[in-house]
Amino acid sequence: MPASKEIFQKYLNPIFIETGTWHGDGVQQALDAGFKNIVSFELSTELHYLCSKRFEGNFDVTLFQGDSAEELPKFIKHITTPIAFWLDGHFCGLDTAMGKKNTPLLEELEAIKAHPIKTHTILIDDLRGWTKELRGFDTLDLMKKILEINPNYIFTLEDGFIPNDILIARCL
Ligand SMILES: C[S@@+](CC[C@H](N)C(=O)[O-])C[C@H]1O[C@@H](n2cnc3c(N)ncnc32)[C@H](O)[C@@H]1O
After folding, report:
1. For residue 27, what are the domain limits?
2. For the chain, what is the mean pLDDT?
3. Local structure of 65: helix, strand or coil
4. Does the beta carbon of 108 sit less than 6 angstroms from any atom of ligand 1?
């Protein structure tokens, strides 16, 4: 679940960038929400292949296979418009992306920090899983990292898999 058209359409920007394509449901919800440029990164070659088939012929959707910790910084260097980031790439128990870097969230936020635009909208899914015990950092650490990008970010929560499971950071 979690990705939802109703949530995404509140945060429309010229580009939607997702980390963790999974089976493409987030991409579909972003399309349904009205995003016109959708980019998604997936570590698993199998899932990337399946999603490439699913969105074949849809020129609003660009899919990359690779580790978002490495690929996201390279890609966003070329972007000059505001982005809505859906940061959702991580090992989730059933996928095939094991063994490589599968908690790229801090590196993704570093890449966003290095970008010249400091007002991108950032959505982070699965807050329930970001604990020091499981991942080495928690939601408060994520918020601190986002405030390093720009101290004017404000935070709200949206419901996902469980209530208040999605962190929204934006500059008004
Ligand atoms: C929770 S699922 C994503 C769900 C999807 N975003 C949606 O809204 O339907 C997490 C995905 O992240 C992928 N993943 C894990 N580590 C990754 C990494 N370092 N770079 C890119 N994708 C990664 C996994 O293979 C898995 O498909």
Report:
1. 5-170
2. 92
3. strand
4. no
State the alpha helices, DSSP H only, in 34-158. Answer: 45-54, 68-76, 105-114, 132-135, 139-149
Q: Is 95 in the pocket of ligand 1 (CB under 6 A)?
A: yes
Q: Which residues contact 142 (CB under 8 A, 6 or more apart)?
A: 105, 109, 124, 130, 167
Q: What is the pLDDT of residues 130-162, one digit of tens each?
A: 988 888 899 999 999 999 999 999 999 999 999
Provide the CATH number for the domain around residue 137.
3.40.50.150
Distance 95 CA to ligand 1 centre (A): 8
Number of domains in the chain: 1
Q: Distance, CA 22 to ligand 1 centroid (Å)?
A: 5
Calculate how far, in angstroms, residue 21's C-alpha sits from the geometric centre of ligand 1. 5
Q: Which atom of ligand 1 is nearest to the CA of 3?
A: 8
Nearest CA to ligand 1 atom 2: 22
pLDDT in tens, 89-144: 987 654 444 444 568 999 999 999 999 999 999 999 999 989 888 888 999 999 99
Residues 6+ apart with CB under 8 A from 81: 13, 14, 15, 117
Q: Which residues contact 87 (CB under 8 A, 6 or more apart)?
A: 19, 105, 108, 109, 122, 123, 124, 125
